[in-house]
Specification:
The chain has 181 residues and is mainly alpha-helical. The protein contains nine helices and four strands; from the N terminus they run ββββααααααααα.
Length: 181
């Protein structure tokens, strides 16, 4: 491509508003970038997240406010594949385990770690983001994209988007609650 006298080389991908856009339409580079950005945020906050004096629930709240938004930025529009979700789950669980002072060798189930810090699964949060975006789109125009399996999994229909309060309550993912014995 030429702009006046300058030749502009063709690129396979470029960064736009914090997202990596690939010419092929894939999101592999963007998912990898988002995971890297989340780790950067996690490292910057590691003084809080790794402090043994801070309660796990407070660490979880801090994680949800600081790290997770960096991980999921732009995810509501991703044509996500299982491999992308798996990468994000692995990264998130490594962070959460580290926050709790555990490793995989401790053989503590992911659900137990999530419950301890009060953080919902990244899979559920991805679905929530997609459906929130879908609700916006559905209220705006008739030709909005949606992943039908997300609707089916939560037993919701497109016409439910018209009642914003009900829609939000149906798609909202809550963190696991602590069960005391």
């Amino acid at each position: 491509m030429r702009l006046d006298t300058q030749i502009i080389p063709k690129k396979d991908s470029f960064k736009y508003l914090g997202s990596v856009i690939q010419g092929s339409g894939d999101i592999d580079d963007d998912v990898t970038h988002r995971i890297g950005v989340a780790w950067m945020k996690w490292r910057n906050a590691s003084g809080v997240l790794c402090d043994k004096k801070i309660p796990p629930r407070l660490k979880g709240k801090f994680y949800r406010v600081v790290v997770r938004p960096a991980l999921l930025y732009g995810a509501e529009c991703w044509p996500v594949k299982n491999s992308h979700v798996q990468k994000m789950q692995v990264a998130e669980m490594r962070m959460l385990r580290w926050m709790c002072g555990h490793t995989r060798r401790d053989k503590i189930r992911n659900e137990v770690i999530r419950e301890k810090v009060g953080v919902a699964s990244v899979v559920d949060k991805l679905r929530e983001a997609r459906l929130r975006w879908f609700g916006h789109m559905k209220r705006r125009c008739e030709d909005a994209p949606v992943r039908r399996q997300d609707l089916a999994q939560l037993h919701i229909t497109e016409d439910m988007t018209l009642d914003r309060k009900e829609w939000r309550s149906r798609i909202k993912v809550e963190a696991p609650t602590v069960t005391r014995k």
